[in-house]
Inverse folding.
């Protein structure tokens, strides 16, 4: 399937997904948490999968079938592998721009040494770069890269890319229990990400069945700590917990407010109490949500916080 959705996306609103990589999965990484299964062909060589015109026509046909109220906010390259492996990515973006819908690309950033990849991504309105590790060993353990890739050069090329990119740049970090969720890794990573200065640094967790079934979601304390480490570095960090919900904000619906806010960042107890007061609700709501395992409490720096409860959905 070339296009799918639109799906609600915390990052992009209504996102119409575009899969420009033909099955089976082709990627330069074999991330332990990958949700599209094991990498069948691990490659760093750009190649042609579909003709740009073919993708364009499929997307146009798809858009024509979408109702007005479901019209996409973004056309998003989120592939069955690494979208930048497609040598036609730039040409396809250029054709899709005719729709007037902004283009987003979610990339693992491993191919930014190619000038052609950087040029293709410069054309996108929104780019998210994968940054899971702050050192080579962690990178090897989490992302299981192609043997010809090099951690230091990827970091160098990410910086090179951000210097020339004019669109909205984000980073995305998947936190995995015991692999990259230590305070040391997250602190070192926050220094690297601060240098990139993204509009937003997303912190996600594996909420869907991962490629390596043995991996686990980090403890809520570690996720909370990671968010605070980024926040302390003045990085605009947002949690992606698998709950895409509705808009974040005060809606008057206390259940929705708590779930929406805790999906994005930990909610400090005093703020939560204020929220209850504003929505004229009592603490029983919080106890109900805890009982339903939708949120849980955790401590940080002398304060109690409430966060979404995390589960892998099989
Ligand atoms: S880079 Fe993306 S597609 Fe490739 S293995 Fe990692 S998560 Fe899967």
């Amino acid at each position: 399937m070339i296009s799918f959705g639109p799906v609600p996306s915390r990052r992009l609103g209504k996102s119409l997904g575009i899969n420009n990589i033909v099955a089976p999965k082709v990627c330069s990484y074999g991330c332990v948490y990958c949700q599209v299964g094991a990498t069948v062909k691990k490659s760093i060589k750009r190649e042609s999968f579909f003709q740009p015109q073919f993708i364009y026509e499929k997307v146009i046909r798809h858009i024509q079938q979408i109702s007005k109220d479901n019209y996409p906010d973004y056309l998003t390259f989120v592939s069955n592998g690494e979208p930048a492996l497609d040598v036609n990515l730039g040409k396809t973006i250029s054709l899709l721009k005719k729709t007037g819908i902004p283009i987003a690309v979610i990339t693992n950033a491993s191919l930014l040494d190619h000038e052609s990849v950087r040029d293709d991504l410069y054309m996108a309105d929104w780019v998210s770069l994968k940054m899971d590790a702050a050192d080579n060993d962690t990178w090897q353990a989490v992302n299981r890269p192609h043997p010809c890739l090099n951690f230091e050069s990827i970091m160098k090329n990410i910086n090179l890319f951000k210097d020339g990119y004019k669109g909205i740049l984000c980073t995305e970090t998947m936190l995995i229990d015991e692999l990259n969720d230590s305070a040391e890794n997250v602190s070192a990573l926050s220094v690297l990400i601060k240098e990139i200065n993204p509009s937003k640094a997303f912190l996600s967790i594996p909420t869907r069945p991962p490629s390596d079934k043995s991996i686990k979601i980090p403890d809520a304390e570690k996720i909370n700590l990671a968010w605070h480490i980024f926040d302390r570095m003045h990085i605009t960090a947002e949690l992606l917990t698998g709950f895409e919900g509705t808009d974040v904000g005060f809606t008057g619906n206390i259940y929705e407010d708590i779930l929406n806010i805790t999906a994005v960042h930990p909610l400090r107890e005093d703020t939560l109490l204020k929220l209850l007061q504003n929505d004229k609700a009592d603490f029983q709501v919080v106890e109900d949500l805890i009982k339903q395992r939708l949120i849980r409490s955790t401590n940080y720096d002398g304060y109690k916080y409430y966060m979404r409860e995390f589960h892998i959905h099989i």
Q: What stands out?
A: Residues 27, 29-31, 34, 36, 39, 81-82, 108 surround iron/sulfur cluster (CB under 6 Å). The chain has one domain: 3-240. The CA atoms of residues 262 and 307 lie 5 Å apart.
